[in-house]
Amino acid sequence: MDIQPVALLFQVLVVTAWTKDRLVVGKLYKEPNSASADEPIPDTDYIPMSCYNFSIGDKRMQSFSSPGWSNELYPAKIDCVHIIEAEKGHIVQLDYRQSFNVEQAVDCAYDYLEVRDGYTGYSRLLGKYCGDSPPPVDTSTGRFMWVHFHSDDTIQYKGFHAVYKFLINRHPKRSTAEDCWNVIDGELEGEIESKTVGRKLREYAFNHSIVLDCAWDIRAKTDHRIHLDFTDIEMTSENCQHNMIQIYDGNTSGRRLKNQECSQSRKLVVKSETNRLLVRFFLWPAIANSTFKARFTTYRNAINGKIYNSKV
Question: Within 13 Å of residue 31, how many CA atoms lie on the same side as its CB?
């Protein structure tokens, strides 16, 4: 039997499995303008092949597993992110099948599965799990669920297999985070500032006593890095629970938090290690006068004459 037609058919099936994304040499890229202006682009733009079973999983069966599941132990020193996205008007419910076996430690300090209610690593924490007891069923309040699996450099276990389903959202709530996600893709330079947040969104947050949680997601070309220069930071309160700026490098997991500012700041300059910086602006309505302004430039990153592509 000629295997070439079979291989070609497999390639066609893989390519057509995603209408907006394409998988190329271990990287999942969002096609330009594949998301509408009011929808976030998840954290999974770069996916190492070791994370494939976790970060992609089986969309038809609505399941995913730890790397190496069923045949071997999960590998050391991995950080994999999976964004589960339901259709509008639905929520996500996550459950586990068969065994759950992740290195046990106090506060799950070494290896862990982290589940959050939203599409970022700073969304509300639903649970952080390790050990050999299956976690409880987790349910989101909106249509996104952010799941992160981390392992350290010693002692690996079998891992887990997770399944999810979508339920009708009978208690929908508006999230300012979804309404205030600003994607800047492929620009060589530009400015970002808090004043661009719409008046109606600010008024909605104030009238409903909910936080204003905005993000500027700056994405450069794969072989570029980002230089971000804050020319102005004015914080009304010095309490991080009232207002703050957070800067993430690569994705929004806590391990990728690069800077956090909660008070009147010195001049702040940030240089990325990856081709993505995300600036989060968190503000309680009562602290309406907190503002920031920054300018970014992107540059080609060469080490020893070679282009360096960081694995996130």
Answer: 7
CA angle 193, 197, 203 (to 5 degrees): 145
Q: Could you give the 3-state DSSP secondary structure of residue 11?
A: helix
How far apart CA 60 and CA 71 sit, in angstroms, is: 21
Look up residue 299 and give its two tokens.
Answer: 């540059």
- C-alpha to C-alpha distance for 130 and 280, rounded to whole angstroms: 29
Residues 6+ apart with CB under 8 A from 226: 218, 220, 270, 271, 272, 275, 276, 277, 296, 297, 298
Is-above-0.85 flag for pTM?
no
Residue 240 pairs in a beta bridge with none
212-238 CB burial, b ≥16 within 10 A, e <16: bbbbbbbbbebebbbebebeebebbbe
**Nearest Cα to Cα of residue 288 among 191, 218, 204, 183:** 204
Token pair, residue 283, equals 């503000």
CA distances from 65 to 22, 53, 62, 162 (A): 21, 6, 11, 6
| Strands 212-219 vs 181-185: parallel, antiparallel or unpaired | parallel
At residue 61, the 3 state secondary structure works out as coil
pLDDT tens per residue, range 268-312: 999 999 999 999 999 887 677 888 999 999 999 876 444 434 433
Q: What is the pLDDT of residue 279?
A: 97
pLDDT tens per residue, range 8-54: 333 333 332 332 332 332 333 333 333 333 345 455 556 788 899 99
* Residues in CB range of 118: below 8 A, 6 or more apart: 124, 140, 142, 144, 145, 146, 175, 177
Is residue 96 classed as helix, strand or coil in its secondary structure? strand
Assigned token pair, 85? 């996205």
| Contacts for 233 with CB less than 8 Å, ≥ 6 apart | 245, 261, 264, 265, 268, 291, 292
Beta bridge partners of 97: 161
